[in-house]
Design goal:
By secondary structure, the protein is of the alpha/beta class. About 35% of the residues lie in helices and about 25% in strands.
Length: about 260
């Protein structure tokens, strides 16, 4: 762990504890008896070949897919028994591969829409642009490198800026667990570097789980890497450790 990016201190109690998690689709086990533990302040990167079960694990954590058996505990909440909305409310945020932002709204409006008070129907009806909302929007916009684009319509942003905006929309909700699926796909080199810096910052006080194929990016952000293969953990540890693991080279990195 010595070569991990700075800023991660392990605690004894994992924020996210996945135990013996299995999901079967018509007899095929997409995730098979998985045990995974993520700490606060940790950036965990999940890698592996296509079909390894990476996205399915995120789907299970956020309630989009229901487990066949096993447990997902987050801050003492058993997520397998909760709805997607309830999982968001207890502090889990998920970003999918394709940015889902409101293209016809400004950056400010996208962030404002994501403010927790604006999410419920009654909240949306009586939503006031109060000083605390404006302050939060401005703070998040600065954090995601979009301070100068606050009043720019979202469809005019670059691909990388749209990815940052969606991360910002999740940050507005102050999640304790943030899950990102291939956040740097299609980004320029400079955007990838800025994203690495952003993830290092936003992991302070929360946990971040990232699925990624770009190994240079993984090396720059991961405190710990989990390699999945056929729904099971093939290897786990520092990037150096998994990169030099013969099993990982054989089924994934060697190709």
């Amino acid at each position: 762990m010595n070569n991990a990016p700075i800023g991660f201190e392990s605690t004894d109690h994992p924020v996210l504890a996945i135990e013996d998690l299995t999901v079967s689709f018509d007899g095929f086990k997409a995730v098979d008896g998985l045990n995974l533990y993520v700490q606060r302040n940790e950036v965990r990167v999940v890698i592996g070949p296509n079909g390894a079960g990476k996205t399915t694990v995120l789907d299970l954590i956020c309630g989009k897919t229901h487990a066949t058996s096993g447990s997902i505990r987050f801050n003492n909440h058993e997520l397998t028994k909760m709805s997607e909305h309830a999982i968001v409310r207890v502090g889990v945020g998920r970003k999918f591969q394709t940015p889902s932002i409101y293209e016809n709204l400004s950056v400010f409006e996208n962030l404002e829409m994501s403010f927790p008070r604006g999410r419920k129907v009654m909240g949306a009806l009586f939503f006031q642009r109060s000083p605390d909302v404006v302050a939060r929007v401005e703070a998040v916009a600065a954090e995601i490198f979009l301070r100068e684009q606050l009043y720019t319509q979202a469809d005019l942003l670059s691909h990388g800026q749209k990815q940052w905006l969606e991360i910002g929309m999740l940050l507005m909700q102050e999640p304790e667990l943030l899950m990102l699926d291939e956040p740097v796909a299609g980004m320029s080199v400079s955007e990838r570097e800025k994203t690495a810096e952003l993830l290092g910052r936003i992991s302070q006080g929360r946990s971040v789980v990232v699925i990624e194929h770009d190994m240079e990016f993984v090396k720059s952000i991961a405190h710990k890497v989990t390699v999945l293969h056929q729904g099971k953990i093939l290897a786990e540890g520092s990037m150096d450790k998994v990169q030099n693991d013969p099993k990982v080279i054989d089924v994934y990195l060697g190709h």
